[in-house]
Amino acid sequence: MTEHHLPVTNNQTVVDYGSTTTTPILSPSQRAARTQRLPSFVLLNESPTPQRYTRMSHNTLHGETQRTGERLEYFLNVLNQMCIGFITIYISYITLRTGLAGTSLHAWLVTIGFSFLMAEGVMVHYGNNVLTNSYKRNTKTTIHWIVLTLGGTCGAAGALIKMIQKGFLLQSTHGRLGITAFILCLLSMSSGLAALCSQRVKRVLTPLLNKALHNFLGFACFVIALVTQYYGYETGYFKSRSEWDLRILMKVVTLLSLVLSSIGPLKAFYHKVKALSR
What residue ranges are annotated as transmembrane (predicted)? Predict the structure, then answer.
């Protein structure tokens, strides 16, 4: 038996009996051309772009700035709570030491009402308030109404006692500001009652407008009340009971408390005005 051997050429195909396809044997030049035609894929996470890194850096920087601002506001709120406590304790010490009668009762009531309760009441919804930031919104609203009702009642009663004592003839800066704070307190409490019953008065005022008006009146009352207390340290009652340097300290602490307590209400009022403008 004679065996015939076929010549081997470059175009000859090798058959793989274990598969259903045939794989041609390519020359080096053909393999190189085929490799150039094959698409190359690059994983997304392995090919970062400058735009992606720029966006991440911006977000990170913005987040760090926001956290720094929150820490600062948290610290300022703690400082404000210390100022409020110092004013309340000092005035209570002076007035309770000599007995709550006449001017002492007036000074104690307006301090408890405006400098303590109203200051805490206007900051209840403030997000960085160390005393109420863990409460739910409904709980904050309930605390807000209770504290401001008590504060407004004490402050108005204290101012009314002095007005009756003076026969409503108050010629000093302290007295005139006190009458203004008394009127604004009554208006604020009335608007607060209307805001509580906003569904019933919505035919006259929209709920958002009514709440914005309530915030404005309440904040104006608080500002005038603390400015009134600032001038109250120059009255004869405090001059006869405290030294000059201590009165200066009380003025500074009162103004500092006014500024720090105004951060939350001003933010809330700004958002309501922005919503109304839309």
Answer: 74-93, 105-124, 145-165, 177-196, 208-228, 248-270
